[in-house]
Design a protein that fits this description.
Blueprint lengths: L1 E12 L10 E16 L4 E4 L5 H17 L5 E7 L9 H18 L5 H16 L5 H8 L3 E4 L8 E4 L6 E9 L4 H14 L1 H24 L2 H17 L5 H12 L4 E5 L6 E6 L3 H10 L3 E7 L5
Parallel strand pairs: 3-4
Antiparallel strand pairs: 1-2, 2-4, 2-5, 5-6, 7-9, 7-10, 8-9
Helix pairs in contact: 1-3, 2-3, 2-4, 3-4, 5-6, 6-7
The protein binds (3R)-3-hydroxy-3-methyl-5-(phosphonooxy)pentanoic acid.
């Protein structure tokens, strides 16, 4: 029997810009998807808990693809997810990584390296997302805070692991299910086609925030990082990617003491927001008392 874990992810800065070749900063979550493989007559997948039938059908189709690429080891893979579906926490990327990792290990009898896992997971992720930048599954496969960039049209993105002076204390708040990333990205692309210069300018500005965010993280300047998150939320809002619900959650996090807060992931009519806090545990207590569904996620510091 073998087990693999694909963590969910949060995008600290740069979602959507990353689809157009700008960088993004993304970090793994402490929760994710676990895949367990046991010997079986043939290669198949099942969910530990029931899911909507459309989602299960798509999962089976995507699994078939990755199973084929992994050489169809004779195992039954059971998937268990702690991640809420379709809120921007990278559930499909996490699931793709967990499947790829467990199948490769079952086939070759040893753990595969993260690049090989990522490559396979990307084939699965494409079925869920259409034209993903690859930031979700790469963050999940690398299990590290990444500066990620992919030139549109290129097969794979490039990333650097960031060295963090001290941990990044985040609060993740879940606002509820939203439309799929595929639809939100496609609608944004249509708006960009109507007003190319304006939208290109906004995406470049988001890319610039990411560069400044990277410098802030490497310098351990949480205040600056918080401010960049606020500005990034404003730009995502300007791009039509926020909603009354997301804006309200962002304001609740700021009122609870966030150094900065923003939506994370594709956004749209629901999803999740993140806030950077000096004392995230106290903030979660306050927010939970106000009925906000949230949890603490510390991104561990790594010093060279
Ligand atoms: O699917 P989500 O909500 O985790 O968003 C992924 C991030 C986007 O930049 C919106 C899309 C992408 O492919 O990078």
């Amino acid at each position: 029997m073998s087990t693999a874990f694909g963590p969910g992810k949060v995008i600290l800065l740069g979602e959507h810009g990353v689809v157009y070749g700008h960088p993004a900063l993304a970090a793994p979550l402490c929760i994710g998807v676990t895949a367990q493989a046991v010997p079986h007559s043939h290669c198949e997948v099942e969910l530990a808990e029931p899911s909507p039938s459309g989602a299960t059908q798509l999962l089976k189709q995507a699994f078939e693809q990755v199973a084929e690429l992994a050489g169809r080891p004779a195992v039954k893979v059971t998937l268990k997810s702690e991640l809420p579906l379709s809120v921007g926490l990278g559930s499909s990327g996490a699931l793709s990584v967990a499947c790829a990792q467990v199948l490769l290990e079952a086939k070759h009898g040893r753990a595969a390296d993260s690049a090989t896992v990522g490559k396979l997971a990307f084939e699965m992720e494409k079925l869920f997302h259409g034209t993903p930048s690859g930031v979700d599954h790469t963050t999940s496969a690398e299990k590290a805070l990444l500066y990620y960039r992919r030139t549109p049209g290129e097969d794979h993105g490039h990333f650097e692991r960031l060295l963090v002076k001290s941990s990044l204390p985040l609060v993740v708040a879940i606002c509820g299910a939203r439309s799929g990333t595929k639809k939100t990205v496609a609608e944004l692309r249509s708006r960009k086609e109507i007003w190319p210069q304006r939208y290109t300018r906004l995406f470049s500005e988001i890319g610039q925030l990411v560069e400044e965010g990277r410098a802030a993280i490497e310098a351990g300047d949480l205040k600056s990082l918080g401010d960049l998150m606020n500005v990034n939320h404003g730009l995502l809002s300007a791009l039509g990617l926020s909603s009354a619900q997301l804006d309200s959650a962002v304001h609740q996090l700021r009122s609870a003491g966030a150094l900065g807060a923003k939506l994370t992931g594709a956004g749209g009519d629901g999803g999740a927001v993140i806030g950077l806090f000096e004392d995230p545990e106290a903030a979660v207590e306050t927010l939970k008392a106000a009925g906000v569904h949230c949890f603490v996620n510390r991104i561990p510091g790594v010093v060279s």
